[in-house]
Write a structure and sequence with these properties.
mainly alpha
Length: 181
Amino acid sequence: MGVVCWTGILILTCRRLFIPYVRRSGTLADIATDLMLLVVITLGNCLTIGYQLFVHEYDYRETVSVWVRQLPLLHPDPTVMSGIPWIYQAHILAAFTLIAFWPFSRLVHVWTAPLGVIRRYRDPQQRRTPAATWFDVTVAAVSGLRPNRGAADRSSAPTTSSTSRPAGGSSRAQEARRPEQ
């Protein structure tokens, strides 16, 4: 299970860091959240797979679990944590850092439900205009026009001829390249 989580967060982090439009749509807090999740999951996998199998069997239930159960009582015994391996301490510190960062990131959406969307009334006659595709945005960037977002933009867009759309269904980019008549 940990390897699957690690693979998923690694793919998510690489996507956020290396794909430009994903990086632009996010914030620095999103990148920090992904990196913190990657560190916590990596350390957890190192504990489970690496330390337990290759170093020695450590019974964390008698030390770490006892200390974590003392935290809600606000009376943790620090001597319990002083003798545990450093990788367990690093994992707990990374997890607490992530928990402290939680309210300032998009992780808060774990505790929300979109109940307003379920109750919201939508008029059946209402038609949403489609969003611009990557092709529309690319053509608009090359030609210097706004991307075509549907009928709402077509009605307010300046045209080069007397009709709103020339016969033959040419695009705005083709209209812009046509000489004035």
